[in-house]
Amino acid sequence: MLALKMEVIEQNFIDDLYRFALLHAGDRGIALSCIGEVLCEAESNAAQWRTQKHRFLWAARLISLRLAKKNHSGAASADDLPASLPEMRAAVNAARPELRAPLALHCTGIVKSSEVIQLFRLRSREWRVALLQFREQMAAAGLSEEDVHEKVQALKLSPEDRLALEVSACAVPPPRREWDKALAVAAVLLGICVFLGWFGWERWRDSPSIIMRGHMESFLELNRNAGIAGLETFEGRAGDTQDWLFLHGMEGVHMPKPFAGVKVAAARMLRWNGSPIAQFPTLSPTGLLVIAEGEALQLPEDNSDSGRSTFGDWSCVWESTGPYKVLWMIQADAKTLEEHLHSLANPAPGR
To answer: At what angle do helices 97-107 and 11-25 cross, to 10 degrees?
Structure first.
């Protein structure tokens, strides 16, 4: 298992992670535990980085965050830190908490100050001050900058450490980041929303009201293009048109009650999509009464016996009568249409 993790972060960088974690934590057990956790996570996120150096810096940053959560005491025994490193550890631990990890990483000698500043989001001035103080403390202990790097680089994983690290890496399952879970949930919810949206769109597009809207546009266009051609004078109400319709080939049309009282001013037969339709212009209000074969309208079987629809500034109501559909379109809003229908259903006395 460790060999697999080493394919993600090279052995020399794993050694540097150990040096950094040991100097930062001051405790070998805690350092190895954090490295084992980070190696598992690095394996599951390996595609994010271009180079081994980037993976090392990411892992070092994650180790510092893990150590901050563990809230270790910072006390190190002589067994944990080789000779001369306790002074270095004490100097690191003397800095402010947010500067301890950057100083420990600096001691490895493989990162630049610019990388430390960027990785830990430090201000340049505060990092320069912290680094100067650390160097002064090391000089007081008789250690130069080169001595610090040399002594830290001398730290290496022992066979026992490697075994402990392998056990730790195997024991900890690769964690799944919270935002990965959130993205997965969001993707599922988005898929559901898209499906429901598509399903709703298809149902809406195939609804009788939407289909009838298209027919309204077609009937009005046909009426406008026909002009006055074929119009016959017809003074009366829609309920009186049965004989006229019979004479013009539409048998068995029983005008639905809501339209029986509509006053019509003329009548004519036209061809629409290969089928005959009857048109009766109405003057008060301005509108058009249309009778067409139900099959020609191709409405769905459900909820299509009657209904309402609109197109532009026109409103429409339709009813079924045998094999036919009767539509009344007026140039007004839906509220005005309902008012006219109400007055027809409840005529004033003497009308």
So the answer is: 140
Burial code (b: 16+ CB inside 10 Å, e: under 16) for 240-278 equals ebeebbeeeebeebebbebbebbebebbbbbebeeeebb
In which region does residue 299 sit, left (phi positive, over 0), alpha (psi from -120 to 50) or beta (all else)?
beta
Per-residue DSSP letters for 177-209?
A: -HHHHHHHHHHHHHHHHHHHHHHHHHHHHTSHH
H or E element, residue 12: helix 11-25
pTM of structure = 0.46
SS3 category, 233: strand
Residues ≥6 apart with Cβ < 8 Å to 87? 137, 138, 141, 143
**In 227-256, which ranges are continuous DSSP H helix?**
242-247
Among 30-34, 69-73, 131-135, 338-342, name the one with the lowest average pLDDT.
Answer: 69-73
